[in-house]
Structures are given as structure tokens and as C-alpha cells.
Amino acid sequence: MAVTIKQVASAAGVSVSTVSRAFTAPDQVQPQTLQRVREAAAALGYSPNPAARSLRGGRTGSLGLIIPDIANPFFPPIFKAMQARARRLGYTVLAADTDEREYDELETIAAVSKQVDGLILWASTLPEERLRELGAEMPTVLVNRHVEGMAELRISLAQGIAQAAEHLKAYGHTRCVFVNAEHGEHGRGKSIREVFEAHDLSLTELGPYDPRFETGLHAATLVAAGEATAVLAHNDLVALGVLHQFAKLGVGVPDRVSVIGIDDTLLAATSTPSLTTIRISADEVATAAADLLIDTIAGRGEGRVAGIGSRLIPRASTGPAPG
Amino acid sequence: MAVTIKQVASAAGVSVSTVSRAFTAPDQVQPQTLQRVREAAAALGYSPNPAARSLRGGRTGSLGLIIPDIANPFFPPIFKAMQARARRLGYTVLAADTDEREYDELETIAAVSKQVDGLILWASTLPEERLRELGAEMPTVLVNRHVEGMAELRISLAQGIAQAAEHLKAYGHTRCVFVNAEHGEHGRGKSIREVFEAHDLSLTELGPYDPRFETGLHAATLVAAGEATAVLAHNDLVALGVLHQFAKLGVGVPDRVSVIGIDDTLLAATSTPSLTTIRISADEVATAAADLLIDTIAGRGEGRVAGIGSRLIPRASTGPAPG
DNA sequence: CCTCTTCATGAAAACGATCCCGCAAACACT
DNA sequence: AGTGTTTGCGGGATCGTTTTCATGAAGAGG
């Protein structure tokens, strides 16, 4: 059915080796031969069979992207950007979702890993030991997870948080609330506490809850009953819940309370009022992760640690503190 | 590096053929032999090399999903659901984005088609002739596109729109606006016009514009200046723009104008006020599309047409007409 | 003119699985 | 007992590439 290298070879009057070379190492074949081969290939509509290619070469030309939840609006732009980057470098991206469950993560990785040259593990929940094993078996890049000796992409919220703190301070806020929607140590809470303290802003922490819209609803009710004039939420989705509940309670945003999200997803730009948030650039993140993985595959990455920053995007949900 | 069938064979003291059979046709091998093979495979951590398998068998075990824009919040849940369904049936889903550009679509399809057993083309912009060619080359399922003789999944908004019309009518609305954000004939406009007319509701059409947030902002300004009391937007994103602008203009929702979206994305549930919208079930759609494609691959699908319905999800953005 | 490289090309061996054949043993039937 | 059928398994061809090695021609240098 499909046209093979053999047919191209006989059409061009050369051997299969030459056709192969014409595609993989064009400088090793004479210009006129090259052209004949190319014409024949074009005429027949030939393109190499990736299965055969990977069988022989041991390389699949794909990168595996393992993320917690593709339905989280933070990830699609990353997938998209990574796809674009990968394509330019001759790779395909195979994305898979673990549904935030540890059990599924192992299964997913097992299913994907056979078909890719390397893995990008986003905020993996796997124990360090497993990650180490995985890293020994195949090129692996960890995002937002640290294991000594493994390649890592670290997304730093520090700048964004610092800018948020300055922003709030400039508006005269002094009492802030952080809605923590994440369990465990590696979260966003630590760096937020530190930065706010350094800026001399009082910070009350709510939670930890789950990173869901309803968490925001609940937290907003608590905040409305208190004295705080600014809320920093774990992410945009939670911030949206906060916004929603404030509207319901008649609490003015930003007149009575200012609200800040994190991630700068589509949600933030389209909410009412539009949401001040801390942006993590999908392009930067995706590009850095893809490049790091490709370097690791080529043996040049090997435990390198790359970093990505963040910044505040001021919108309509923040304003002067009341009074 | 990786463990092959040969190693398993010698570990189990059988031939490679037997190991292969143990995995692909377990009933053709004696129970005790089967167990020995399985134990050996488990001990070595063997799993078949997909590249070798597809090279020999001509099947890749992957489904290709070509969508206009993965960053459109409508698609991630579909991708997710399809992945879940496909996995249960022994398939992997390879998703790719065309960025809404026709040129990219061809290129994307070319890149993907070599690595999958079949294609799901979502709202393809390709000319009918190309689609026909594609369908001749490989199993293809069209979503929201019709080409005689090709397998098709048709998402019908008819019920949802009818319910929306009834809903508005019951609330006493008579003058409605449809914000069209799509060019071409195959769109949502036709069926909306028909249904609203059948329900005796006057319908003014704005556009066509592009399906973006800003379209909603613009349309809302026009609506606010007019007499209409209800807006049906092309999708949730546009509806959110409408909501946003109404808030800015001080136009009460739903007191002065009711707003309805389409798709029931995350945006609709989390907006302020929450958005009444027409739901297209991601699970149903993804399952139906995957099943249809798998049937087509197996030669059982062949130009079948499957249908998926929709329904209204009433939320807080609709209410009684003013006066 | 002869040797020594370089260069373009072809032949053939992999890569790791599947699957068609063929063989032998076990069983059923006359 | 002899013949036919089923069953379980091994041998080996095969899928479409890449890549190593060999070969012969062309070019360089003395």
C-alpha cells in the first residue's frame, strides 16, 4: 500500500542505501544523484516509515509530556508551545494525563515511555526513588520537582510574588490572605510567606484545600468576615472562585478586597473583573523544557537545572486598599 | 539495553514464537508454558517494542486527533476523555493542533498520519476533495464536517438550542440577538435561526466575527444600545466577553439582559455570574469519535454517521425579561 | 605511471517483533 | 494397528529502514 524506500530506489535507478542517505545525510551523495532521488521520491509521494526508522535507529523522534491534568487551563498552552518547538527540532510531542493520581502516573509513564525518546514529568508525585530509576532508564526532565543529579526545570514564582507584594503595598494594603490549595512541602506557600514577610505584609494562610473553584468560594466567605483587604490565591481557578463568591456576597472587588491569581490562564483575562495574576510564560516554559530534554537525549543535558521566571500582570481585580 | 523477546524466550526455555503467542494469542499456548513465559517476562520487565510490532503488523496502536486549537477550553476535556477511552481499547491518542490555519492542517496531518492507524479530523477546513483523498488512504472520521461516504460524527446543537429557546420564552423574552463568530456555511447560525423562528422569537444576528473574547465585548456594546433582552453567543468565550462588557457598562445580567453561551467549558461554570450554556458532553463526543474510528479501522465503520446531542445547562446568567 | 586517498555507491546485516509453515506428539476413529 | 485430525511449539521469512563494510572509480602526489 504505502510507498517504500525500495520503490523509490528502483524508480531513481539507485540502491536503497543511496535513497536512505539522500534523506539522512544529503552531503554524502552526489548532487545529481540526490536530485534524481528527490524527484523520484516526490513523484511517488514517499516519506520514511517511522516505525522502521525507530526500530533500526532506536530513536522514535517523540517527546513524552506527562502532566497532571490537561483540563487544567494552564497546560494546553504549554502543550501547544512545546509542540511547536518540538516540531521545529524534528520531534513530535506525545502528551498524557495522569488525572492527578499517583497510580495512573506509573501506568501512564509505562504506556508512553516505550514510544518516546525522553520524558518530561510535570510536578510528578512519584517517590524520589522511582524518579531516579526512571532517569537511569531514559532521558528525563523534571519540572517543579528536584532530584539530585536529574535534569530539572524550575519555575520560580519569586519575582512574580515580589512584584505582587510591591503592588499591594503600593496600594496601601497591609493585611493579606493566602489561599493554599496544595498539600505537601514543595508548594507555593513557602516562597509566598517569605516574600510577604520580607515586604512587611501580614499574611494569613487558609487551607490547605484542593485546587478547585469551590475552594475559592469557601475562602472568600472567610475573608469577607475578616479584616484582610487582599487575597492571593493558589491559582487562577481558585481566584475565580473567590471573585465569584465576593460578587455573591456583595463584597466589592477591588474596592473592598483586591484579588490576585497565579498562572495567567485564559480564565484570568476573561473574568469579571479581569484578574490580576502572576504570569508564567507558556512559551518560555515549554521551550525550555523541550530544549532541556533534547539536550539530555543528546547527552548534553545530564542533570542540568534550568530556571524560568514569572511576573505580575496587573488587571482590574486589584486597587487601593479601602479607607 | 531494553529487554527483548529473545531474552524472555531463552529465560523461559521456549522459542520466540511462543513468547510472542503468549502475548498476542494466549489461548494457543499451553497453560503451564504460558505461565513460565509470563513469569520470565515479568522477572525481566519485558514489554513488546511498539516500533517492531507496528513495522511487522502494519498497525501502530495510535489514534490521531487533529483539532483546531488545543488552547480552546472546549478541547482539553475531549482529548482527556478520548485518551481514557482509547487506552481501555488498547490505543494511544496522538493529538495535534493546526492553529486554525489551513496550511498547517495539511502539514500536521502529514506529520501525524504516518504514526497512527486512523485520524479524527475536527472541523477540518480542508476542501472536500482532499478529505476524500485522505479517507481513501487511511481510516478517517470527520467531526462536524460532511463528506458523502466518509465516517462522520455529527454534533447536533438542535436540542440544546430548542431548550434555550423554550427557556428564554418561558422567561418572557421576545427579542434576541445571536452573536455569530464563525464564517462559512457549516456553522451554528443556520440551526439557531431556524429554531428561534420556530419558537416565534425574533432573532437579530451580529457578525460574523471571530470566536474571541473581544468579539463579545464589541457585541455587548451593540446589544446594550438596542432593545434586545437576550443574547446567545457563538460559544462560551464570546459569551464571557459579553458578560464582561455588560458589567463594565453597568448593564445588569440577568436583570436587563440574559446571556447564553455554547460548549459548557470551564469558563461557563466559573464566571460571574455563572453562565447558562448549551452543553456538549465531552465524554460522549470523545467516546463516540474514538469508537467510530476504531470501527472504521476494523472495517466496520465505513461511512457510518453517528450523532451526539446537546442540552441546556441553566445557570445564573439568564432570568426573567425586564418589565 | 604507479600508488595512496578520497569519494560515491551497493550489498547485506542488523533492529524486534509477528505469523506462516511444518513437524511431532497426542488423540480419535474405523 | 493404521489413518486422519488436532494441538503446541520451533524455524525462519518478513516488515522498511539505517548503517557498516566492501568495491571500484576518480583524483592527488611523487
TrEMBL record, chains A, B:
Keywords: DNA-binding, Transcription, Transcription regulation. InterPro entries: HTH_LacI (IPR000843), LacI/GalR-like_sensor (IPR046335), Lambda_DNA-bd_dom_sf (IPR010982), Peripla_BP_I (IPR028082). Residues 3-57 form the HTH lacI-type domain. GO terms for molecular function: DNA binding. The keyword rRNA-binding does not apply. The keyword DNA-binding applies. SUPFAM superfamilies: lambda repressor-like DNA-binding domains (SSF47413), Periplasmic binding protein-like I (SSF53822). It holds the Pfam family LacI. Transmembrane segments: none annotated. SMART domains: HTH_LACI. This is LacI family DNA-binding transcriptional regulator.
